[in-house]
Amino acid sequence: LLRNTFHDEL
Amino acid sequence: MNLFRLMGDVSHVLAVFILLAKIWRTRSAAGISGRSQILFTIVYLARYMDLFFSFISLYNTVMKLLFISASCATVYLIYFKFRATYDGNHDTFRIEFVLVPSLLLAFIFHYSMSFFELAWSFSIFLEAVAILPQLFMVTKTGEAENITSHYLFALGSYRALYILNWIYRYYTEGHFDPIAVCAGIVQTILYCDFFYLYVTKVLQGRKLQVLP
């Protein structure tokens, strides 16, 4: 899956 | 940050405080599912572990601390301070039926095989179904106090607003998070039945009665 491991949402 | 996400977070904070205030003021946990609150505490602990080493913004950090502390405080009030008023006979949903599938899904769908990413996915999937014990309890008791209905409405609205936030972010910055979006849609769908009852009953000033 898309590798957006930067979680800026709560 | 956009208005949808901000309204979503405000709705979420509102839900958390409605519940805490209700239990604290009435000194009673009647009608509240302690099991759902335990699941929410697990959700926040699993998702906000990065609190201690990835600083995103003061807002982000404050909100994470608030959700963790408020959910722990709620569990404490239900199972310790006002334990005598906890309605264990109607709060019987087997939470392992949501914990295990969430864990399995986290091992299938995640963004990286790191502990924190698995914990994050687990918390996303778990949050989608964390309200089930509470909804189950409302159907078992056949009704919900008005204040509990307001709590559920605010809690359901939070993720519904997040869906609008994801649509907005997709079109403005191309941001797309399939795990959060899919789980968020499932989570919001679970509230639809309740939303219908809330709008047709509670907003007309009547008590929320789940037809037996």
From TrEMBL, chain B:
**Keyword Transmembrane helix annotated:** yes
Please list the GO terms describing molecular function.
ER retention sequence binding
Q: Where in the cell is it found?
A: Endoplasmic reticulum membrane
Query: What is one term from the GO cellular component aspect held by the record?
Result: cis-Golgi network
Any one GO biological process = vesicle-mediated transport
Give the way it sits in the membrane.
Multi-pass membrane protein
Alphabetized UniProt keyword annotations: Endoplasmic reticulum, ER-Golgi transport, Membrane, Protein transport, Receptor, Transmembrane, Transmembrane helix, Transport
The reply to whether Metal-binding figures as a keyword in the UniProt entry is: no
Q: Which residues cross the membrane?
A: 62-80, 92-112, 118-139, 151-172, 178-199
Family to which the UniProt record says this protein belongs: Belongs to the ERD2 family.
The protein in question is named ER lumen protein-retaining receptor
The top of its lineage is: Eukaryota, Choanoflagellata, Craspedida, Salpingoecidae, Monosiga
